Amino acid sequence: MYWKQIIDKYYAGCDGLRHILLTHSQAVARLALQIADAHPEMQMDRAFVEDAAMLHDIGIVMTDAPGIECHGSEPYIRHGVCGAQILRAEGLPEAYARVCERHTGAGLTRDAIREGRLPLPDMDLVPETMEEKLICYADKFFSKTRLAKRKTHEQAQRSLAKFGGDTLARFEELSRLFGTQE
């Protein structure tokens, strides 16, 4: 996979942000692979999981989040759909773009997007495939502001509280599926 070339292309001159992206994505990929290895019965595509985990946040470069050195013009909540646009423009299979756009929170429903008047497409952005669910779940244990620290299950729950009860319910469903990661 040429995820390194894609990251280098879009993060040229953004060394601090590139470091944040790579450190975060590597942690997510390691956990996702650990979980996949613990669940061989799920028959997940290990190579895809690693590559997609490395690209799941590629869109942060287009967002405005100065606390993590993002100086783009898009609201941060759009980083997933921005990443999907990048990966589609690069000609990657649709499965990679779907991981990007479906990992925010524990996925966002069309109703939540409408009710929150979120600047996102009017559609369900909830992970559907096992690989989408796995990367979404693994992502919840790592932030981009505390790169060296892995969240506990309880800390991950608290960070999702802002998205509401449906999001927490989806996170708990993922926890039952993959384990609580304590």
What would your notes on this structure say?
- The chain is an all-alpha fold.
- The chain is 54% helix and 2% strand.
- It contains nine helices and two strands.
- The protein has a two-stranded antiparallel ribbon with strand order 1-2.
- A hairpin with a 4-residue loop joins strand 1 and strand 2.
- Helix 3 packs across helix 7 (130-139) and helix 4 (79-89) packs antiparallel against helix 5 (94-101).
- The longest helix has 24 residues, at 15-38.
- The radius of gyration is 15 Å and the shape is globular.
- The N and C termini lie far apart (31 Å).
- The model has no long low-confidence stretch (mean pLDDT 94).
SSE inventory with pairings:
Elements: H1 3-10, H2 15-38, H3 46-55, E1 64-65, E2 70-71, H4 79-89, H5 94-101, H6 110-115, H7 130-139, H8 153-160, H9 165-178
Antiparallel strand pairs: 1-2
Helix pairs in contact: 2-3, 2-7, 3-5, 3-7, 4-5
Strand segment count: 2
Q: If you compute it from the alpha carbons, what radius of gyration comes out, rounded to the nearest whole angstrom?
A: 15 Å
Which parts are unreliable, with pLDDT below 50 for 5 consecutive residues or more? none
Order of helices and strands: HHHEEHHHHHH
Q: Please state the average pLDDT score.
A: 94
**Main beta sheet strand tally, sense and closure:** 2 strands, antiparallel
Structural class: mainly alpha
Taking the alpha carbons of the first and last residues, their distance comes to 31 Å
User: Helicity range of the residues?
Assistant: 40-55%
How many helix segments?
9
Strand order of the largest sheet: 1-2
Strand content: under 5%
Shape: globular
